[in-house]
Amino acid sequence: MENDSIVVPQEIRPVSTMTYVGFRILFLIPIVGFVLALVMSFAPKNINLKYFCRSQLILMLILVALYALFLGIVYFGMRYM
User: Fold this and answer.
1) Residues 22-39: pLDDT tens digits?
2) Up-side HSE of residue 51: CA atoms within 13 Å toward CB?
3) What is the pTM of this model?
């Protein structure tokens, strides 16, 4: 039987689990993680990595909005006590 190896283009090549873990760890660093998420959301040629970074960026923005909402509620709640 002939060895048929499939050549997968770089754009859709699967990303390893350790790559995802490494990026998650880097995204935990406050300012560096946000800048890295911005850059990696648009720069890489690999679509899997690009979509992963975009999802992390959206998650970060949602968490920042919830944090700001919580701080606003606490601030105005304490102000009128």
Assistant:
1) 999 999 998 999 999 999
2) 7
3) 0.81
